[in-house]
Structure formats: structure tokens, C-alpha cells
Amino acid sequence: MYSQTRVYFPYVSPFDPCPPIRVKTFQVNPQLFIGFQPENLPQFSPMEALRHGVLWPALYSPYAGRGDQEGLEG
Amino acid sequence: MTNTPQPIDNRFYEMLERLQAVDFVLVELNLYLDTHPNDMQAINQYNEQAEQRWAIAHEFEALYGPLTNFGHSYSGYPWQWNQVPWPWQV
Q: Which Pfam family, giving just one, matches this sequence (chain A) (predicted)?
């Protein structure tokens, strides 16, 4: 299953006052590709669904942070 | 939630977690059914889960007192609703 994180590279001007952010990430969740949800998709068990935050594995979207805040989390 | 603060055993947390899982499935199914009113299989699952949810809740309340008030749960004697521990203390 490919990662749901994509990146883009903002334009960095020589006159930027602050240190440039060269890589930005954004999430591409499954619901963007599924459209209208079909019936009878496979489901998690209740406990798993609670852990994953969604009832259907097809729509599961893990989020592991923006990746630009090492050491800042928590 | 009983009058004498009963030591909370792990069965308390176990049952609460099971109830939480079933409640979450019900929330998901409810939102799904809002946009898929004709999905018979999901409706059956929703009703099964609702029935199961009440079984778990009543089992829990029989042991540890009411989960909700204002008539949505029974109470033992004496009145158990405002006894410790509260949900945020658990």
C-alpha cells in the first residue's frame, strides 16, 4: 500500500526573510479515490476499528505527522 | 459508581473498552447509513450492534452503576448517579 503522503516544493525567493521551507507534505486520503463508498466493503472487528479510527480498512488513513517537526512533538 | 467507592478492577476497563468499540462501530454505521439508506446488510448489522450495545451497557451498569442519567439508565440504592468515580476520574 503506497504511502498517503505526497510532497511539493515551495518556491524559495532570494529575498525571503525567514529560513526557507523547501519541502512541504500533504495527505492523500483513500476517500479521494473511492468516491461514493460501495456496499459490503470488508470491515475491521470492533476493537480494531476503535484502534484504527475507521470501520473499513479501505478508508484507513494513518497520519504520522508532517515530518518537519522532529524533536518538537509532544 | 456505587456508594462505597469500589476498587476498580480490570474487568471494569475491559467492559468499558468493549462498549466503546461497539459504540464506535455504531457511529460509523450510522454515518454510513445516512448516505446509504438502502444497504440492507448494513442496517441488519446496525441493529445487531445496537442490541449488543445495550446488552453490554446493562451488564456494566448492573455491576458498576449507571452510565447515563435522566432516565437513560437505572440506579441502585442509594442514588448512584453522583457517586465517584466520575468518567473523567476513571
A: CotJA
Cell numbers that stand for B21 in this block = 468499540
Residues from chain B contacting residue A46 (CB–CB below 8 Å): 18, 21-22, 24-25, 49
Asked if the C-beta of B2 comes within 8 angstroms of chain A's C-beta atoms, the answer is no
> Which residues make beta-bridge pairs with A6?
A26
Distance from CA of B39 to the nearest CA of A (A): 7
Q: Is the ipTM of this complex over 0.90?
A: no
What element of type H or E holds A7? strand A5-8
Q: What pLDDT was estimated at residue B6?
A: 64
Do the chains contact at A49 and B29, CB–CB below 8 Å? no
pLDDT string in tens for chain A (74-residue length): 567 889 999 999 999 999 999 999 999 999 899 989 999 999 999 999 999 999 999 999 988 887 777 665 55
B5 falls within a domain: no
Phi and psi at residue A26, to the nearest 5°: -145, 155
| Domain interval for residue B23 | 10-68+78-84
Omega of the bond leading into B78 within 30 degrees of 0 (cis): yes
